[in-house]
Amino acid sequence: MSNQQQNHPAAPYPSVVMPQCPAQRVLTGQKALVTGANSGIGKAVAIALGNAGASVMVNYLRSEEQAREVVDQIEAGGSRAIAHRADVSDETQVLAMYARMKEEMGTIDILINNAGLQQDAPFDEMTLAQWQQVIQVNLTGQFLCAREAVREFKRRGVVPEVSCSAGKIICMSSVHEIIPWAGHVNYAASKGGVMLMMKSIAQEVAPHRIRVNSIAPGAVRTPINTAAWQTPEAYERLMTLVPYKRIGEPEDIGRAAAWLASDHADYINGISLVVDGGMTLYPGFATGG
Ligand code: BGC
User: Fold this and answer.
1) Could you point out which of 80, 279, 280, 281 has its C-alpha 20 to 30 Å from the C-alpha of 272?
2) Is residue 232 included in any domain, yes or no?
């Protein structure tokens, strides 16, 4: 045995075997839960995971009809999908959702912690209810869903034919985990919280071969921010904040999520993947400073 081998005893896991399936179907055989998957970024991510071969539970709270459409689209692409209504900020409903996931799909390999909302107000006019609702859904909801996912990942462990990881969590954050946002203090606080929650979970569960990361989107064309892109004037104003000079499309985030969840990203753990056309490059400094 060489010195190097003696100094670095073999890890308790087999070495990584990359998926042999075609790049488009990198999630074949994996079971994914996407929260808030009936519209916007969640919808695009659910469809992208389905197109990559995953079976998908499409979580929604309000529009069953929209959720069914997402299920139909995933099925049309050749993957399995089911819709499930649950409020991610309610512990009982989260436990019931995971019980259904187990019943219908047997286990979970990928959690996309996506459900989130905004309740904007000038700081001194923000009500406690607005503060609490945003923290409850955006932060506590992600905690509850991540905890149940980790419990199942630890119980089941690595199944090498499915993935070289025991499970993957992707928290949907925002550029506002980095960029302070006047008028949106509750939202920025929730995303700042998501950032260190994600990293702390990642640090704790990495030895179990569980990967926990975030995606931090910039301005993406979704119902959450229609006011920022719907009129030509608003779009032009928005572009002063985006060096790449186009709004993000939900599919930009879908592709990033499918890759980050796949074994192609197996050595990536505890990061926020910023997908923002350069919004976090401080564009105001491009011509001054
Ligand atoms: C917010 C959007 C906003 C974007 C960039 C997102 O996290 O939900 O409303 O347009 O950040 O500021």
Assistant:
1) 80
2) yes
